[in-house]
Automatic annotation (TrEMBL):
Listed pathway(s): Amino-acid biosynthesis; L-tryptophan biosynthesis; L-tryptophan from chorismate: step 3/5
Keywords: Amino-acid biosynthesis, Aromatic amino acid biosynthesis, Isomerase, Tryptophan biosynthesis
HAMAP family: PRAI
Organism: Candidatus Nitrosoglobus terrae
UniProt name for this protein: N-(5'-phosphoribosyl)anthranilate isomerase
Reaction catalysed by this enzyme: N-(5-phospho-beta-D-ribosyl)anthranilate = 1-(2-carboxyphenylamino)-1-deoxy-D-ribulose 5-phosphate
Family annotation (InterPro entries): Aldolase_TIM, PRAI_dom, RibuloseP-bd_barrel, TrpF_fam
NCBIfam families in UniProt: PRK01222.1-4, PRK01222.1-6
Occurrences of domain N-(5'phosphoribosyl) anthranilate isomerase (PRAI) (ranges): 6-199
Record EC number: 5.3.1.24
Signal sequence range: none
Length: 206
């Protein structure tokens, strides 16, 4: 199975276009004002307008109000929603969009139970847990904690880079990998060489 790739935390249209040229399947736009990678509506529209066809645009939210999410959806051509807070399955499902639920790998988390709770999610995104940080920690969690034969599609995140993405794919065999800080020159600004190296790491498993 081909491993999909999402470059998250895109803040510049040139980075989005470069991701597409390299063969990425999706880009992530962060609509969480506290994040150093957050975009406003004008930025988001410019980024999406610059994209070529067949690239999925993912909008990331953290415990956002329904009115704010709807405002974003009314303004920006978002394909898939990604929820990084404590959103319930009902809150995630109310927008008639495919959604991804991020799960922070806190001690004792029951992934099999959460797969049932969020059974309508297109995938679960597994990310490193860090107190007070909903995502983008830059840290790797123990991949051995992921159950074998997991019943839902897994998007693997958390500290991925060109140095470890091949190992991560071989170990976890996820549906997709998600990277942000591992391909940056500064927060929100991607590094073209690091992005290319990351894609080479993904392609090396084939």
């Amino acid at each position: 199975m081909r491993i999909r790739v999402k470059f998250c935390g895109i803040t510049r249209h040139e980075d989005a276009v470069h991701a597409a040229i390299l063969g990425a399947d999706a880009i992530g736009l962060v609509f969480y004002p506290q994040s150093p990678r957050a975009v406003n509506l004008q930025q988001a529209c410019q980024i999406v307008k610059a994209l070529p066809p067949f690239i999925t645009v993912v909008g990331l939210f953290v415990d956002a109000t329904m009115s704010y999410i709807q405002e974003v959806l009314d303004m920006v051509a978002i394909d898939t929603l990604q929820f990084h807070g404590d959103e319930s399955p009902e809150e995630c499902s109310r927008y008639n969009k495919p959604y991804i639920k991020a799960i922070r790998m806190i001690t004792g988390v029951d992934l099999l139970q959460l797969a049932q709770v969020y059974k309508n999610a297109s995938a679960l995104l597994l990310d490193t847990y860090q107190i007070g940080v909903p995502g983008g920690t830059g840290q790797v969690f123990d991949w051995n904690r992921i159950p074998k034969d997991f019943p839902k599609a897994i998007i693997l995140a958390g500290g991925l880079s060109s140095e470890n993405v091949t190992q991560a794919i071989m170990k976890v065999r996820p549906y997709a990998v998600d990277v942000s800080g591992g391909v940056e020159q500064s927060k929100g600004v991607k590094d073209a060489a690091k992005m290319a190296a990351f894609m080479r790491g993904v392609y090396s498993v084939y």
